[in-house]
Amino acid sequence: MTLERLNELPAPDARAEFLKCCGANAWATAMASGRPFATEEELFAKADDVSASLTDEDWLEAFRAHPKIGEKKAVTTQSQQEKRWSSQEQTAMQTASADTVARLAEGNHEYEKRFGFIFIVCASGKTSDEMLSMLNNRLQNDPETELTVAAQEQKKITHLRLEKLLNQ
C-alpha cells in the first residue's frame, strides 16, 4: 500500500485500513476523512493529532483490538493482517520460558482486574522478561496514570502499524 493508494481508497476502505493500525473507530474515521496526505510525515502528524483528541472510551476500544501479551485472540475481531502483526510484535513470546509465560498470564489477570483493560505494551523488540518487568512496574500505577501510559503504548503500536501498512 502506497500513500497515494491509501489516499485514493473509498472512505470505508480507508477506514478499514486505519482500523488495522488503531482499533478506535473515532481515530480511524478521522484519519480516513483527513485524507489526502501529501507526505508520510503529514500522515503521522495527523495520527498524533487525532490521538490527542481521543476520549478514555476511545482508548479502551483501541485496547480491545489487541490480544493479551502471550495470547493470540483479541476481544474484538481481527483481520488476518492484524493477527499477523500481533504475532510479529509478540515474537519474543515464542521463546519465553514456561515460568515467564505463567507469570505474564497471572500478571495480565491482575492488571485487568486492577485497571479494567488489558495490559498494552509496544512489544516489538522487547523480550518476554522485559514485558513482564514492565507489567509488574505498571501495576504500581494509579488508574489515571496507567490509562495515560497505556495510551502512549498504543500510539507507538499505531505508528509501527502505519509503517507496516505503507510498506506491505
Could you characterize the architecture of this molecule?
This protein has 168 residues and is an all-alpha fold. Helix content is 65%, strand content 0%. It has 9 helices and no strands. It has helices at 3-8, 11-21, 25-33, 40-52, 56-63, 80-89, 98-115, 128-138, 143-166. The protein is globular, with a radius of gyration of 16 Å. The model has no long low-confidence stretch (mean pLDDT 89).
CATH architecture label name = Orthogonal Bundle
CATH homologous superfamily designation: Oxo-4-hydroxy-4-carboxy-5-ureidoimidazoline decarboxylase
What percent of residues adopt helix (DSSP H or I)?
A: 55-70%
Largest sheet: none
Tell me, what's the shape? globular
Strand content: under 5%
By DSSP (H or I, 4+ residues per run), the number of helices equals 9
> What is the structural class?
mainly alpha
Order of helices and strands: HHHHHHHHH
Rg (C-alpha, Å): 16 Å
Task: Write down the CATH class.
Answer: Mainly Alpha
| Named CATH topology | UraD-like
User: How many E strands?
Assistant: 0
Could you tell me how far the N terminus lies from the C terminus, measured between alpha carbons in angstroms? 6 Å
- List segments where confidence is low: pLDDT < 50 over at least 5 consecutive residues: none
Total tally of structural domains: 1
What is the mean predicted local confidence, pLDDT?
A: 89
